[in-house]
Design a protein that fits this description.
This protein is α+β, with helices and mostly antiparallel strands. The chain has a single domain, classed as START domain (Alpha-D-Glucose-1,6-Bisphosphate, Chain A, domain 4), CATH 3.30.530.20. Helix content is 20%, strand content 38%. The chain contains two helices and eight strands; from the N terminus they run βαββββββαβ. Strands 2-3-4-5-6-7-1-8 form an eight-stranded antiparallel sheet, covered by helices on one side. Strand 6 and strand 7 form a beta hairpin. The termini are far apart.
Length: 169
């Protein structure tokens, strides 16, 4: 008999080095913060124009968000395909970018992102991590700067201005 591969939900750890970590608090309860961060990216991540989902492989059922659901983010006509790795409403979710199936090409591979949610000061503390390996001879520091300062930080600033909260050191 052939051994089956581990379910995707058990692969909830990065194999690439930690590249970026941002922590902030939103003046929202964890359930609402989770919904906003996991399902409504186009409301706060300015580069994302629309998000579509395919739940046909979801471990929670074919019509429900869950691990193994697939998300497609439209970056102005080019899609970035992602597979949800873990999905724990109000607590954590993680995802991997599927660069081979994406139209949007980025100079990275072995991408793993995660959001962790914890109660804090009447709201929710969120830690957003991005793990990846630079490729195409792009210096890692330049790629980290581009993702952190040109994409992630402006997205968090938009969240903070709309919902209230603060950066956490």
């Amino acid at each position: 008999m052939t051994a089956l591969a581990a379910p995707l939900t058990q692969l909830d750890h990065p194999t690439s080095p930690l590249q970026i970590e941002l922590s902030f608090e939103l003046n929202l309860p964890a359930a609402e913060a989770f919904d906003l961060m996991a399902h409504r990216l186009d409301e706060w991540f300015t580069q994302i124009h629309a998000v579509s989902w395919d739940h046909s492989k979801s471990v929670r059922g074919a019509s429900t968000h869950g691990a193994c659901s697939e998300r497609s983010c439209d970056f102005g006509g080019k899609s970035l395909r992602e597979v949800i790795v873990s999905y724990e409403p109000g607590r954590r979710y993680s995802y991997r970018a599927d660069m081979a199936r994406s139209e949007m090409k980025m100079p990275l591979e072995d991408h793993f992102g995660s959001f962790d949610f914890a109660p804090a000061h009447g709201g929710t503390r969120i830690t957003w991590r991005q793990h990846f390996t630079p490729r195409w001879f792009v210096p890692g520091a330049m790629l980290r700067w581009q993702m952190r300062d040109k994409m992630m930080k402006p997205a968090v600033e938009r969240l903070l201005s709309k919902y209230g909260g603060r950066w956490v050191a």
